[in-house]
Design a protein that fits this description.
The chain is an alpha+beta fold and 198 residues long. Helix content is 30%, strand content 33%. It is built from 6 helices and 8 strands; from the N terminus they run ββαααβββαβαββα. Strands 1-2-3-4-5-6-8-7 form an 8-stranded mixed sheet, sandwiched between helices. The longest helix has 16 residues. 32% of the residues are buried. The C terminus is likely disordered.
Length: 198
Amino acid sequence: MAGFRPDYPLRTERLELRPHRIDDLDDLFAFHSRPEVVRYTPWPVRSREETRAALEKKLSQGELNAPGEWLVLAIELRETKTVIGEVLLKWGSDIDRQGEIGFALHTDYQGQGLAAEAAREMLRVGFEELGLHRVVAILDDRNKPSAQLLERLGMRREAHHLDALLFKGEWANEYVYALLEDDWRASERPESAGSGRG
């Protein structure tokens, strides 16, 4: 599967998911600089220059060439052409066909189902295009909105790890959610058929 690159942009009802561009900087900085957005992300609050450096790395993350790499896509609101967040899909293993999903969304756009819309499309890409068998999501157990979102997507909580990592200066507990290929095909595919075209 080396050289895997979806047919961009990936379209949903309200969104386009696509590789980052250098002119995304202002939109990216608008949420990378917000403490409430990055509270549970691996990165800290970023300055504009730190956001620029991070963006430069993201420019090449629109395709997968080896296990362990991430697709990192901008979530663009089609109506305004504004980048309102990011959605990620990791190609964890070729042999075991494992993957991982993640997302971050500007606070002004939360609570509208937009993160779920983006994440559902990335699950479709993972299962139907990349051929994954299992996709997990790993999150801080205090991140209740994200846990609820994952459950709405049909993911099941498989584990609760206590003091799993030292995260931003404090011990954090982790939830592990997962979705299997068979579950996706049974419950998600009918309602998402055609969602890649909006």
